[in-house]
Amino acid sequence: MKRWVKMIRLIGGLCLVTLLGIAYVSYLCHNSLCLAPERSNLSPRYSVISSSSSSRSEILSSPTSMVKLISGFPSKVNIESVAFEDAYDMGFDITSRDVIVFLHIQKTGGTTFGRHLVRDLNLENPCNCPRKRKRCDCFRPNTVNEQWLFSRYSTGWKCGLHADWTELTDCVEGALDEYEGSSRKRRYFFITVLRDPIHRYLSEFRHVQRGATWKSARHWCGGQEFTSLPHCYKGSNWTGVELDEFMNCSYNLAHNRQTRMLADLTLAGCYTGYNTTADQLERDRILLQSAKQNLASMAYFGLTEEQATSQYIFERTFHLDFANPFDQANATLSAQAIAELTPAQIERVRQLNSLDNELLEFARHLLQERFKMLKRRDPHFRRNWFRVIHPHKLFVQSFFLARKKMKPRFRK
């Protein structure tokens, strides 16, 4: 009996000492000064999968090397983004928590590509696109409101008109939670389309000349909306603007638009001092490096000038086929527009989009690397490639092959 009493007293004494120790440490560490740093401060805001490719290793440096920036803005983005090789290895699971997020850059052919996504994918449960309605319901099988596609033609502009990389990564999780009425973690497959910078710039100029403004764009960055960005025009729009006037506006967001929309703008102070020349070279370097890094970490990107290659890469990456092929748009109109320009104007357009030109060269090399890798791994490459470039011929061949295999029937 005495032994049990001693044991109880010993345990009680140890508990008392522990409680006193906790109280003492809590007193010394007032206001959580002794707590370990949060995990979010120890890791980058998104993951970039390393690759043996030399072109990628040049730009996929640690994000900490990019944070000596111009009045950088804090960011607390914490989403799971799937890179290209992981997307290929794991595939896209439409029945689980995977979401394709389409970053739609103006005048890159994104409208056509966006329609392909909602109307032409061969799915057991395709998107429901009611007549006389712009948007489609791209719900997961056996669900009534869970979206597997985040784009203009499925969810609408939930993160703002033509939301860029900075806006989408900060907004997409909350926007889907609100849309679906519940909070859940998802895997995001970011995709985009790029275009030759000169052709894209002139296309945007023509669009603005006809009255387009995109005034409702949010320009959300670093936890705030930049609503005071100056306009290049007075009145409601810039209808009838001439090219020289369009180019001479120093704060025209058409300049190097693709680089800006793919970069993490918080690394360069968002839109603070966007129109100034102070540290412009450093800002450009940061934005270009960030845009390359984000493009390389995306699950997929295509090029407007490489429709067949882009379609093949999408289909093999996501293990999904398109019922209708991508059409290679005729460049006659763009070529005609360029032919009407003076050599000085062409050079000026090229200078204003120098970052986009460098980004496109990087994208071309990366696209070819991905194509060659997928080609090597595709045991049915010739058939899959032939189906992309000659879809109608393959259908005819399959039809006659099926008829040839049918056994003839004779009437008695």
From TrEMBL:
Q: What is this protein called?
A: Heparan-sulfate 6-O-sulfotransferase
Keyword Transmembrane helix recorded: yes
Q: Record's SUPFAM superfamilies?
A: P-loop containing nucleoside triphosphate hydrolases
A single GO cellular-component term on record: membrane
Natural source organism: Daphnia magna
Q: Please give the catalytic activity noted in the UniProt record.
A: alpha-D-glucosaminyl-[heparan sulfate](n) + 3'-phosphoadenylyl sulfate = 6-sulfo-alpha-D-glucosaminyl-[heparan sulfate](n) + adenosine 3',5'-bisphosphate + H(+)
> What does the sequence similarity comment in the record state about its family?
Belongs to the sulfotransferase 6 family.
Membrane disposition = Single-pass type II membrane protein
Q: What is the protein's major site of localization?
A: membrane
Q: What is its EC number?
A: 2.8.2.-
Q: Where does this polypeptide localize?
A: Membrane
- Chain coiled-coil ranges: none
Q: Name one GO molecular function term.
A: heparan sulfate 6-sulfotransferase activity
- Alphabetical keyword list: Glycoprotein, Membrane, Signal-anchor, Transferase, Transmembrane, Transmembrane helix
Q: By its UniProt entry, which PANTHER family does this protein fall under?
A: HEPARAN SULFATE 6-O-SULFOTRANSFERASE 3 (PTHR12812), HEPARAN-SULFATE 6-O-SULFOTRANSFERASE (PTHR12812:SF0)
The job of this chain, per UniProt, is described as: 6-O-sulfation enzyme which catalyzes the transfer of sulfate from 3'-phosphoadenosine 5'-phosphosulfate (PAPS) to position 6 of the N-sulfoglucosamine residue (GlcNS) of heparan sulfate.
* UniProt key word Cytoplasm: no
